[in-house]
């Protein structure tokens, strides 16, 4: 069963997206992901079976971006 | 006194068909009334009384939302338009059925129709992603058969459409406006459609 995680970030530009793609594309547990750069919350959407929100937040923070679960 | 332990279950985001339909209908109304540019995920969330996060469960972004709406609308249109339809029908019978079926779609799904008109030819729609092949195939075969039978000559699709469907949609527009270009009250009827169809068939004859 696929879970969908939604985060508010500051991944605003194509370059920003490029930087996080390095970490997200290579992660085994992530099935797919996308960033809505048009949206005011720069929403990061992740589809995964088994990952946790904490893990995602950790990885995104690691490459230098904010990441909090969107309410 | 018993000790109770509270276990926190992190809220799992899962899909819910009712919510999905509610979001879709709200989005459709907003787009039809305010246009695509006026639509934002936040605005939609407020109007539907849900959190923006909930919308993102179903749609990656605005374009994704628009494309999924179009798929839904086209499916409804196609299902209705193809009801009882057979590409082997004569030109007159086939067109009559198409007109009647499409009129039903327009009457039963007015918002869908408005949306369809607005985005049919929009660059925002990724047409190659859409499953509109079945409908297009049927329409193509229908015309090929009519040409084979000598009911119409070969012609560019746009020319054919202008006569075979453009005429019909003109009547529809008058009906929806309730007035014609003459300023007269207008209501579409079977008799009027039949009158136009007879002339269209004549016009298409080789």
- What is the helical fraction of chain A, as a range of percent? 25-40%
Largest interface pair: A-B, 17 and 15 residues
- Tell me the strand order in the biggest sheet of chain A: 2-3-1-4
Percent of residues in beta strands of chain B: under 5%
Backbone shape of chain B: globular
Task: Give the helix level of chain B as a range of percent.
Answer: 55-70%
Strand/helix succession of chain A: EHEEHE
Protein model, in words:
The complex is a heterodimer of chains A (71) and B (206). Chain A has 71 residues and is α+β, with helices and mostly antiparallel strands. Chain A has helices at residues 14-25, 53-62, and strands at residues 3-9, 30-36, 43-48, 67-69. The mean pLDDT of chain A is 94. Mean pLDDT of chain B is 90; it is low at 7-12. Helices cover 65% and strands 0% of the residues of chain B. With 206 residues, chain B is mainly α. Classes of the chains: A alpha+beta (71), B mainly alpha (206). Chain A binds chain B through residues 1, 3-6, 34, 36, 38-41, 43, 45, 53, 69-71, and chain B through 10, 12-14, 40-42, 51-53, 56-57, 60-62.
Show the helix and strand layout.
The complex is a heterodimer of chains A (71) and B (206).
Chain A lengths: L2 E7 L4 H12 L4 E7 L6 E6 L4 H10 L4 E3 L2
Antiparallel strand pairs in A: 1-3, 1-4, 2-3
Chain B lengths: L16 H18 L6 H8 L3 H7 L3 H20 L9 H18 L1 H10 L13 H16 L8 H21 L12 H15 L2
Summarize this structure as a short list of keywords or feature phrases.
heterodimer; A: 71 residues; alpha+beta; four-stranded antiparallel sheet; 4 strands; B: 206 residues; mainly alpha; 9 helices; 65% helix; globular
């Amino acid at each position: 069963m696929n879970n969908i995680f939604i985060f508010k970030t500051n991944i605003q530009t194509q370059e920003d997206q490029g930087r996080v793609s390095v970490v997200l594309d290579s992660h085994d547990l992530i099935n797919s992901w996308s960033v809505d750069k048009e949206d005011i919350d720069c929403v990061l959407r992740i589809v995964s079976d088994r990952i946790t929100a904490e893990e995602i937040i950790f990885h995104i923070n690691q490459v230098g971006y904010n990441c909090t679960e969107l309410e | 006194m018993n000790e109770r332990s509270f276990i926190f279950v992190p809220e799992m985001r899962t899909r819910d068909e009712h919510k999905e339909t509610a979001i879709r209908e709200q989005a459709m109304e907003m787009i039809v009334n305010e246009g695509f540019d006026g639509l934002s995920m936040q605005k939609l969330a407020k109007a539907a009384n849900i959190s923006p996060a909930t919308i993102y469960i179903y749609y990656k972004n605005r374009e994704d939302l628009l494309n999924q709406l179009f798929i839904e609308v086209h499916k409804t249109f196609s299902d209705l338009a193809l009801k009882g339809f057979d590409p082997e029908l004569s030109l007159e019978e086939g067109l009559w059925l198409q007109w009647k079926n499409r009129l039903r779609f327009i009457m039963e799904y007015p918002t869908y129709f408005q949306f369809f008109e607005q985005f049919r030819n929009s660059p925002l729609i990724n047409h190659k992603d859409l499953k509109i092949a079945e409908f297009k195939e049927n329409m193509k075969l229908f015309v090929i058969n009519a040409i084979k039978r000598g009911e119409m000559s070969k012609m560019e699709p746009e020319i054919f459409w202008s006569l075979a469907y453009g005429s019909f949609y003109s009547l529809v527009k008058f009906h929806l406006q309730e007035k014609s270009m003459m300023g007269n009250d207008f209501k579409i009827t079977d008799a009027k459609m039949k009158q136009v169809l007879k002339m269209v068939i004549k016009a298409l004859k080789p």
